[in-house]
Write the structure tokens for this entry.
Amino acid sequence: MPEIVFKTQGVTKVYDTGELKVHALAGIDLELFAGELSVLLGPSGSGKSTLLNILGGLDHATEGRVWFRDLELTALGDRGLTRYRRDHVGFVFQFYNLVPSLTARENVQLVTDIARDPMAPEEALDMVGLGHRMDHFPAEMSGGEQQRVAIARAIAKRPEVLLCDEPTGALDSKTGVQVLEALKTINDTLGTTTAVITHNAMIRKMAHRVIYFQDGRVARVEVNDAQIAPSEISW
Amino acid sequence: MRALDKKLLRDFRRLWAQALAIALVLGCGVAILLTTYGMYGALEDTRAAYYQRNRFADVFASANRAPQSLVEAMRNIDGVRSVAARVDEHVILDLPGRVETVTGRILSLPVSGEMMLNLPIVREGRLPSPTRTDEVAVNEPFARANGLRPGDTFFANLNGQKRELTLTGMLLSPEFIYTIGPGALLPDNKSFGILWMSERAVSAAFDMQGAFNSVSLKLDPSANEQDVIDRLDDLLKPYGGLGAYSRDLQISHSFIDAEIEQQRTGAMILPPIFYGIAAFLVSMVIGRIIALDRAEIGLLKAIGYSNAEVCLHYLLLAGLIAVAGMLLGWGVGTWLSHAVAQMYASFFDFPYLVYRMSYGSYAISGILALVSVGLGASKSALGAARLAPAVAMSPPAPPRFKRTILDDLLALMRLSQPMMMILRSLMRWPMRSAFTTLGLALAVAVLIASSFFEDALDAMIDKTFDQTNRQDATLFFAPDIPETALAAVADLPGVLVAEGQQFQAAILRHGHLEKDVAIEAHRPGIDLSRVVDSAGRAITVPRDGIVLSRRLAGQLSVGVGDVIEAEFKGGRAETHRVRVVGIVTQYVGLGAYMDLETLNAMLRQAPRISAANLLLDSRQIPALHAVLKRTPELGGLVMTNEMRQSFQDTIRYNVTIMTTIYLVIAVLITFGVAYNGARIQLSERARELASLRILGFTRGEVSFILIGETMILAVLAQPLGWLLGAGIAAALVEGSSSDLYAIPLVLEPSGFARASLIVLAASLVSSLIVRRRLDQLDLVQVMKTRE
């Protein structure tokens, strides 16, 4: 039995806009395992991003409990969550979210400056195949390159978990595959527990497990024994 | 360097124009605080050091003729440490090659050659020998103004004897840091000098052997000054004592006091305005940066930066602006302080200027810059800290515009859509609109508060010279002469009209309030030196009482009809009760007026005069001077036109410098506020304005929206600025008013118009600079970027 990294118990999330209440999560019970690459699939508004934000310590659950190993995230305050994000989590977002005034290397350095046991920014960029573009600013790079910088930034701290929210959402098929390859390499070589949100059903084929979301609930979980390489995926 | 710090520096560099605009405003505050605070300290320190090193006395008194034996009794007064008695007389000088009569004061140097108090500093040459009767030293500014050097000789009329004197040295004295002749408004070193001569020579010339008429006392720190003054008055009363007084009534001292007070007022009023505006600008700019950085803030938090680190990041950005302003202010302030110090050194006769740029003033001005900017940035920075990471990562909700009654009103006005956009935006950000208006209003206010001085000066000159003192010259006599001698004055060459005037030293009392004044008395119907009421009408002083200037009446808390006590000083030391029969508005001095006959009847003497006001035939002025140089009774001479000219020149020069400085300041404020406002608008509306361009609006139509918003606020700022300006002017008038003079509050429409024009023009230029960026906007690029 693989080690459990994330465990959620009856997690709900209600957005109260004053006029109406939106149930983004309606009771999620889920476990994610060490070293696994899972893909979270589902239509817009099904609760994938909300769950990822809660797992990453970016947001609070309305009800229910969430553990990262023995650490109960739902019991942590702002300060505790910041500490948790700083020490354990790497994020990759759909719109890269690079700081435009910093070069690729410096964007990675943002993380290595504050992490406990980071790799060198150069090493992280090498891992995503951007060793030669280190001193370029985001505006000088393509979307795929920018996203790979974002991945390098996420892994530079040697996080235990890598949470990716639509990492290929803004990319075409070819550059998207490059990004997926980078993720796969990280997962294989570092054994980082990786969760990838996507709209793109094709991507599920590279995952160990696929978790389907519907209306704020986990509709079903599918174990994928025959993972294919990202290079074989296209859309 | 940490990556976050690199981002900080690059953000700062990107913001340079806006940061500079803010830094300039902040720098103004820092520089002014540094200068005024520095000068305040420099004047106080210099004076204190000078006084201490040269043993400036604490109490002064004069009498007609007191015996030397009295000195011992003075020394025995409780709390008196040392006593210096001397002879102090007026003298008429005939300088080589100078047509005009020069007057001066001559002071005796003690026989021993060793002075106890008010030690002069020998700047060049030496003191006169105690045994020589033809040697004299003069105050340095007088020597320089007249081109005199040690070894030069000139003639002096000492009590009627014409003597040739040799100049031995040029001195400075703590008693004469500000040297002003009788009846003059400003120092005139060419026409009035201080002379020091051996006691033997002065006593002999003025028949004062074994006697003195002026005394200075140094007190123990623990002494009760008022007690000493009372005892001294008792001792001197039989010898025609004119009333002892402390330093604060000593002329030179009180002039410097007034200047120090003015520096203090300046330090209080102006810098807070700049610090406040800088704080507002910083809050506006940092607020916008944080809005633009929203996603980055979310990212920083997602990767583990704490709220405190994020907050600090933006505070540091504000801090860099503060540091830029601080350094700018320190640089300009240091330079300005030295320039102002030079100005003071020439205006006041200090032997040196103790000018330590105190670390304290640098620290205070710098800390205030950091604090005000920090306060300005704190709201936005704390907001950034509080922003939840998940919220920050998602784009902000579009600003919510709601229909209000105002919108219905706007609809009724059938405004164009661009106008609608401007007005909605103003209402959408009411605080920002309000503060922008306030900032521009303060620029208007600063201009009004500075320009009013010029109008006030004109009013002061008109009132003082054109209405009140219409004589060409005033002769002062010491001591008083009988009024009958006026006929002789009228016979002097070139004199067309001569009118007599008496000055009687007195203490006016009302209840517990009292004031030392010189009562002016003349006959009814005089036409030259008149008493003029606030409406500009010459008034005849009634025979049955006293007329007071408004400030004096205020200080004594009396109105028309009240009875006050007048204790006359000098010869007949008697106290009389007089009724206040009128109050007049005056700017210079604390005037008190009586009828000549009434006053002399109280003094039980035939009318006497202290001064004669003359109307002259200008062609005969040299002849008049030739006679005056031989007139021993002459104690002082004021040529009104020359005084008026030098008064006007001196003040006009200072006013011009000041007005220029304030003009620069106002333009900087306007630029700081308008430029930043327009930049932020452009940043917020880039997409909106680009959309309009794509829809077919011309550049001009689009820039109208941008410029229109700034200009509407600038126009709204005008009435508020006028009001604030009038308020600041009133505060300045209040703060700078002293016993010596009061600046009238004269607010002319032209001053308001000028202030408004300057600020509106500067606002327009500032927004036109931003408009150029609008022209360069890459439409496609703007529409592509995610807001």
User: Anything to note?
Assistant: The interface with chain A takes residues 2-4, 6-7, 10-11, 14, 295-296, 298-307, 388-390, 393, 786 of chain B (CB under 8 Å). The first strand of chain B starts at residue 59 and ends at 67.
